[in-house]
Amino acid sequence: MAFVGLHAGHLCQELSRNHASACGQRKKSIARGKKKKNTWETPVTEYIPTEMDFMGWTPPPLEEDEFTPIVKTAAEAADERKGRNIVALRVAKLTCVTTFFLYISGGSAPQLRAITNLVEERLKEVHGMTTRYGIPGNPASGWLLLDYGDLMVHVFSEEQRKFYDPESIWQHGEKVELSDVVSPAGLRKPEEVMEYGLETTDDDDDWSLS
């Protein structure tokens, strides 16, 4: 197991160094009045393996994973607050950091806060779970995080979701089927919701009491 920890540790260090370099380059570009989608020399995806061998360990089928119901509870709560493009990935064989990522898009800072508040409330109520670090991030930044250890819930603005494009980074993860708990509108991207005439978020929605 020491080898596994060492290998995973090297991967996490490489990701951290690459992320720090990318952030530095972005700041310089912004200072010069330029915006670039990807300014690092080596794409971060090259540091993420298609699969890691944890001493022959294999995760159980998704339907048998004890965290799958928790992921679905969080996704359902996000859908109730009209979250869009709700995607869950199991990355247990790709990283030592977590087991599941849940990605959600919202249309405004108040909506991002409303989504995270209900997800946090529902997971505590149904599964007795609390976040490890509160709710890091500022809704105005367009990115909030709920860290439950084996589940990390990322709530993005549409702009930040497109900018960071997390699904492409973890493209080799296993996609969790959410259609049994999330509405058709919740599974689609915001622009698709409008295109297909599905229920969408109104600009007049009041999230202040959510």
Automatic annotation (TrEMBL):
Belongs to the Iojap/RsfS family. This is Ribosome silencing factor. It comes from Rhodosorus marinus. NCBIfam families: rsfS_iojap_ybeB (TIGR00090). InterPro entries: Iojap/RsfS/C7orf30, NT_sf. Pfam families: RsfS (PF02410). It comes from the Eukaryota. One of its GO terms (molecular function) is ribosomal large subunit binding. One of its GO terms (biological process) is negative regulation of ribosome biogenesis.
